[in-house]
Amino acid sequence: MLMFGSIVLFYLGMRVYVYIQPEGSIFSGIAQVLVATYKKRHLKLPTTEELPRILYDPPLKGTSFVLKLPLTHQFRILNKAAIIVDGELNPDGSRSPKWRLCSIQQVEGVKCLIRILNMGFWYHMLHCNISTRDIYSVTSPENEQTPRTQISDPRWITSDHNYAHAGAMDPNL
Fold first, then answer.
1. Are the CB atoms for 47 and 73 separated by under 8 Å?
2. Are 79 and 102 in contact (CB under 8 A)?
3. Among the four residues 8, 90, 140, 147, which has the most C-beta atoms within 10 Å?
4. Cα distance between residue 41 and residue 54, in whole Å
5. Dihedrals phi, psi of 24, to nearest 5 degrees
């Protein structure tokens, strides 16, 4: 019954949804930003005051409900993909080479993706670190339950195998 109610609410609310026609694959937009940034790697980044005048920022197509992403200063190197160079704009204001000039919205979309991937990478690294710590603490030979439990020597964790085999696990060192 709950599923039926959710389907009914979904169809009743469809008329207030904002529909945006896709402009192509999301992966081609990411590739366009990266290629345009690479092709313009020799350009100097403009100052903050000059940015609005020299970056390609066309009006959004479709409805007026969609808000533009604001220009951020993180990953500023990617802003080079939106710098307008002579011959990249048609007389009507549209861009002529898609792989040389990208809009600010495309650049900011790639920046958002990089931020999300960055968080996922560090979450994974932290999880692996915590999991490994738990494994080492359980499997280490110094963690035997004896009446005279000693604190183990942390030098055995080192990556230098010669040091580890040279008696680093000997509690008498």
1. no
2. no
3. 140
4. 16
5. 140, -170
